[in-house]
Specification:
By secondary structure, this protein is an alpha+beta fold. It folds into four domains: 132 residues, Rossmann fold (3-Layer(aba) Sandwich), CATH 3.40.50; 122 residues, Putative Large Serine Recombinase, Chain B, Domain 2 (Hect, E3 ligase catalytic domain fold, Alpha-Beta Complex); 158 residues, no CATH class; 87 residues. It is built from 16 helices and 19 strands. InterPro entries: DNA_bind_recomb_sf, DNA_bind_recombinase_dom, Resolv_N, Resolvase-like_N_sf, SSR_resolvase, Zn_ribbon_recom_dom.
Length: 566
């Protein structure tokens, strides 16, 4: 098979365009009788000096070379393939091992003689030299710009540039910077400052940009977000508070340079003193293990419920986080939310776990009402058919693109065809995404049920297990707990969303003088949904929830949390 490799760096001229490289590669294939070829298009903006793992199409081509799939390679020039002697060395070793022919603009590269190999190595070294020289000149230019007070790259929050490229203060953002330093100097922590900025709808620098941002979270999951959705975090606030740029010192390669000042020395010093004061005032942290940490949601405002405990247990309760720092009018206060004794709620949850066998009773009924395995097979079949459709549409798009390159279509005709095919591809991909998510949920349900059949212990033994095992089993069984205190009837309404079960199961508990909770009975189940109208209908039609409806009980559902009071 013939491999046609194309790449365009930022420094390349228009004549080196991907379209031109692709057309030349196809002409080479046609002229030399290669009907079996594949295009490895690296796209624009990727440097030939980058390591192989940072060049996905080149890496794919290397793997296809190793597998023996590729017998001939075409590129416009050697510099399209590499500008890195390490990359060249690895590429060349595979070429020798697999006896692959390499062509540049139709000319076969001589790799069979000592002179030919020497010349290729000289070209590779020159390519590397060119990149190194560009890098040196770029760094020198950046340093010159820094000395002159010019901007480069993405400017720090609070700054912009004038028509000459000089870094100047952006007044609106600068006022936000000053307020951050003032709040911090008054003892407000970075986390609360971030919450206040988000509540006041002050946009981050990212939120003012268009496009998407891709990153990995702490669980190594790939997260894709619209830049407009990026909000303030305590880390962002801390970075700003500790950045000497805002007191007029711009640091570059360990050297200090002058910059427009936003905060005074007094305000900077006061903020730095607050860091030291906060650190000194922390004292030795009293560590308490919370059985239900990150598991409880407030049934009034939808915020997280967290544990708070002192060594002498003068404070020992789960409380709504909004009572510490209010973000909106619907957040909790002492009239709408009541904290729960930690030991009392922990024991209540353990009791419900025993009573409901970790949700297995509900799961058993759920399985009896439907054929999960059949549902899984149907979804898999639908996904497989969608992938076949997707492959066909992509081939159609590829054919249309090739036809456009051969000028069989006008630019306007191709634009209409491409738009139609892109929409179809996007529609199929979205359907695959939805069905794949549904498949994961169904398989998860099936796995939970299967695992429950193979347990070598009983939920009745839960109280005798050590803390870590208890916590692990509770979090494996329960996806979310929703807690609300009914002030009129002086009872807690506590909802359990078991893993793999599409319902929220509610229980009623009264409070003993000791603070412990006494189980009073089940209040029924409501289908978990993020559609508010469905929740209302469920409430109205379910007799078990009549009392909740009359007392304006707020129903919450997970992912995303939707709420209303009735």
């Amino acid at each position: 098979m013939l491999a046609i490799y194309t790449r365009l760096s930022r420094e390349d001229e228009d004549s080196n365009s991907i379209e031109n490289q692709t057309r030349e590669g196809k002409n080479f294939a046609s002229s030399n009788g290669y009907t079996d070829f594949e295009i490895y298009n690296e796209g624009e903006g990727i440097s030939g000096a980058a390591e192989i793992y940072l060049r996905p199409q080149f890496e794919r081509m290397i793997n296809d070379m190793k597998s023996g799939k590729i017998k001939v390679i075409y590129a416009r020039k050697q510099e399209r393939l590499e500008r890195n002697t390490r990359t060249w060395g690895e590429f060349l070793s595979i070429v020798f091992e697999k006896d692959i022919k390499v062509y540049y603009s139709g000319n076969l590269q001589d790799l069979n003689t000592a002179e030919g190999i020497m010349l290729a190595n000289i070209v590779s070294s020159f390519n590397t030299y060119t990149i190194d020289k560009q890098s040196y000149l770029t760094k020198k230019s950046l340093l010159d710009n820094i000395k002159e007070g010019k901007s480069h790259g993405i400017l720090a929050y609070g700054y912009t540039k004038d028509e000459k490229g000089l870094m100047i203060i952006e007044e609106e953002e600068a006022n936000t910077i000053k307020s951050m330093y003032e709040l911090h100097s008054d003892g407000v922590g970075s986390k609360r400052i971030a919450e206040k900025l988000n509540h006041d709808k002050i946009k981050t620098r990212y939120a003012k940009l268009s496009g998407i941002r891709t990153y990995k979270n702490k669980h190594n999951d790939i997260i894709i977000k619209n830049k407009s959705e990026i909000k303030w975090t305590d880390k962002q606030v801390q970075d700003i508070l500790k950045n000497p740029l805002y007191k007029g010192i711009r640091i570059w390669k360990g050297e200090n340079y002058k910059a427009p000042r936003i905060v005074s020395d007094d305000l900077w010093d006061a903020s730095m003193s607050a860091f030291i004061s906060n650190k000194n005032n922390r004292g030795k942290k009293v560590f308490h293990k919370y059985l239900l940490k990150n598991l409880i949601t407030c049934g009034v405002c939808g915020r997280n419920i967290y544990g708070r405990s002192r060594k002498d247990k003068s404070d020992h309760f789960y409380m709504c986080s909004s009572k510490r720092f209010k973000l909106s009018d619907r957040d909790c206060d002492t009239k709408t939310s009541r904290s729960a004794n930690i030991d009392g709620l922990d024991n209540f949850v353990i009791g419900i776990m025993r009573r409901e066998q970790g949700g297995m009773n509900t799961l058993e009924n759920y399985f009896k009402s439907r054929d999960i395995k059949s549902d899984i097979d149907i979804i898999k079949n639908d996904i497989e058919k969608n992938y076949e459709k997707l492959s066909k549409e992509k081939k159609r798009l590829n054919i249309a693109t090739n036809a456009r390159l051969d000028e069989e279509f006008s630019k306007e005709e191709f634009s209409d065809i491409k738009k139609r095919l892109d929409n179809k591809i996007q529609e199929i991909q979205e359907d695959i995404k939805i069905k794949s998510k549904n498949l994961i949920e169904q398989e998860k349900t099936n796995q939970v049920y299967t695992n429950s059949k193979n347990l070598n212990w009983s939920y009745s033994d839960l109280e005798t297990l050590d803390f870590n095992t208890q916590r692990k089993l509770i979090h494996q069984s329960i996806e979310r707990i929703y807690m609300y205190f009914d002030f009129e009837n002086k009872k807690y309404r506590i909802g359990f969303k078991w893993h793999a079960i599409p319902e929220i199961q509610y229980f009623v508990a009264s409070v003993k003088k000791s603070g412990h909770l006494s189980f009073e009975g089940s209040a029924g189940s409501i289908k978990s949904t993020n559609k508010l109208e469905e929740i209302k209908e469920n409430l109205k039609s379910n007799k078990n929830f009549e009392v909740l409806y009359k007392t304006s009980f707020a129903i919450f559902t997970p992912d995303p949390v939707m709420y209303d009071t009735f």
